[in-house]
């Protein structure tokens, strides 16, 4: 098979992939079960989390244009599914207190070691960048409440 044929096949596959969009529907949110209602964080904490975390860790995901282009859409959908599976701020109140405290401890740890928010995400979403002073406030608040 020539390089030209392989290139054509790849192009056709990419075009066909566009007909298979990922599910971007947002489940309804019960306000009483949200992190905001359950943990009652200060507004500064909630704003930082919404800016840096909620796209992958809640049902309040904002989908930019590139999430409608396959195969990128499949990759991002996997990240969102994985993020919600580990921590979903929209369903935080459905967990028992022990699990909530454990997750808050994990949040502090992930921010402290620099795993969250992911650097690649921050590159595409400037609003997700967390200043060092805000990181300190988040870490202290999560540790105090875990």
- Helices, by number, come to 8
Overall number of strands: 0
Using only CA atoms, what is the Rg?
Answer: 18 Å
Mean pLDDT: 94
Task: Please indicate the percent range of residues in DSSP E strands (runs of 2 or more).
Answer: under 5%
Shape descriptor reads elongated
- Based on secondary structure, the structural category is mainly alpha
Helix content: 55-70%
Q: How would you spell out the order of helices and strands?
A: HHHHHHHH
How many domains make up the 3D coordinates?
1
Distance from N terminus to C terminus (CA atoms, Å) equals 59 Å
Main sheet, how many strands, which sense, barrel? Answer: none
Q: What does the model show?
A:
By secondary structure, the protein is mainly alpha-helical. It has one domain (3-144). Helices cover 58% and strands 0% of the residues. The chain has 8 helices and no strands. It has helices at residues 3-17, 35-39, 43-52, 54-57, 72-86, 97-112, 119-124, 132-144. The mean pLDDT is 94.
What is the structure about, briefly put?
This protein has 146 residues and is an all-alpha fold.
Tag the structure with descriptive keywords.
single chain, 146 residues, mainly alpha, 8 helices, 0% strand, elongated
Topology at a glance:
Layout: H1 3-17, H2 35-39, H3 43-52, H4 54-57, H5 72-86, H6 97-112, H7 119-124, H8 132-144
Helix pairs in contact: 6-8
């Amino acid at each position: 098979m020539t390089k030209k044929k392989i290139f054509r096949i790849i192009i056709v596959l990419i075009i066909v992939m566009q007909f298979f969009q990922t599910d971007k529907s947002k489940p309804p949110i019960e306000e009483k079960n949200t992190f905001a209602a359950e943990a009652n964080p200060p507004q500064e904490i909630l704003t930082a989390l919404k800016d840096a975390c909620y796209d992958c860790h809640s049902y309040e995901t904002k989908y930019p244009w590139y999430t409608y282009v396959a195969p990128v859409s499949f990759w991002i959908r996997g990240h969102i599914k994985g993020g919600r599976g580990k921590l979903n701020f929209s369903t935080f109140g459905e967990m028992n207190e022990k699990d909530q405290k454990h997750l808050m401890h994990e949040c502090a740890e992930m921010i402290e070691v620099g795993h969250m928010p992911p650097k690649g995400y921050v590159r595409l979403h400037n609003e997700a960048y967390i200043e060092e002073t805000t990181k300190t406030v988040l870490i202290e608040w999560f540790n105090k409440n875990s």
